[in-house]
Amino acid sequence: MRTLRVLRTGPQALVQDFGRPGHAHLGVPPSGALDRASLALANRLVGNADGAAGLELLLGGLAVVATGSCTVAVTGPQVAVRVNGRERDSPCHLVEGDELEVGTPTSGLRCYLAVSGGIAVPEQLGSRSSDLLSGIGPDPVARGDVLPLGESTGIPVGVDVLVPARAPDEVEVPVLLGPRDDWFTDPAGQLAAGSWVVSDRSNRVGLRLAGTALRRTGEATGRELPSEGLVTGAVQVPADGQPVVFLADHPTTGGYPVIGVVAERALPGLGQARPGTRVRFRVGR
Hints:
This protein is mainly beta. The protein contains three helices and 20 strands.
């Protein structure tokens, strides 16, 4: 069987596919790649289905050795890719014994590595994704791990130049109000006028923001809700008024009011937002 043998990882390396939606009634988050578009692109470049399992690399830093022939692609923010110490374009082909290194991206947070055949760890609830909140799925990838690869069934889609993405220093986030916007004074006005930065306490569970405190109405001050369902992109506001945007590993219920929900198309950009990135909300209808 073809495998990748892990020599080292960066701060975090996780197996991710498109997740396991549909299990919220069991208390299981959807999980999956935070930047699905980047994972899908990497998979297409190596001949996999868009949602095949790859590696999500927080700030890069991965080094692996191939034990057999395979095609690899690294997507997401701009990052150096080396094979046997020499810089290579992505996608590229590896033979047995080749060492692949992924550097540190110049912007953004998460790179995606796809390998022809996909990462073939066992599925749990229909997905190979690591879920950091519930602990379902494989453990974070660590030095010495041997990752099995599936059978290659597709044809890699070659490109002359893979244009790297660059994460901006400021993101404008489209949001729809509700379901608990009535707990806040002028919720649309507050969201539009406020400004925040991404906190270093953010992770795959949620993007924590620091900045303008969102004010509740007089009658909602000091009150809390019974726990109710949450979706990916929900903007929950704890008692301190600092919003949290829930990402793929979010809890399925929560007791703080949700002022709005981020549009799905904006979530990949939030998954790439480094601490200190400026954030503004644009309220839609």
